[in-house]
Amino acid sequence: MADENKLILLDLWKTNAWNSPFGARVRIALAEKGLDYESRKENLSDKSPLLLKMNPVKKQIPVLIHGGKPVCESLVIVEYIDEVWNHKSPLLPSDPYQRAHARFWADFVDKKIYSLGQQVWSSTGETQEAAKKELLGCFKLLESELGDNPYFVGHTFGIVDVALIPFYGWFCILEQFDINMVEECPKLIAWAYRCLQKESVSKSISDRHKDLFMEMTKKIAA
Predict the structure, then answer these.
(1) Which of 25, 26, 32, 180 meets the CB 3.0–4.6 Å disulfide criterion with 89?
(2) pTM across the whole model
């Protein structure tokens, strides 16, 4: 019989290489709650029997196994973590309207940022230009929503921050395609820097873009 409190995370994780931003969301949420868990690395070209058993529908990571029961899809997992371990570091507001508003923006990130970033990186010509324009537009919308707040729900690090920060590398990629993100979205760059100072974030995401991003942030003070 499985330990009812045991947590296992099925994920793809290599500190200095590309890692799943979706898995990073779960790692950040677990770290925010101070939870211990067993991390099991998955080879997506040779998926384990456990992954296929725990996520037979999509066969994708991340999967959080809690007491032998699987929870799939990164934002679903983040909400599950927040509901089960609600004694510390709430990731969703207690007010119903504010909670719905936060879910809306987390869903916006989920549906837009990854796919557009992939298009920018992998396409060329007019398709790439259109994707760059749309991705920058999405970041400007997010910056408008952020406003002058330190985090997306005000002064508290929450689900929208968890959803977006694993994609901070896209800021660096747009810079490589001649878009000055510090000029275009200075508040969003400052927000990402603030998030990266949190231990729960810095230890949960890839180091791949950190040096380049830190060079970008120097332009803010220049």
Answers:
(1) 32
(2) 0.92
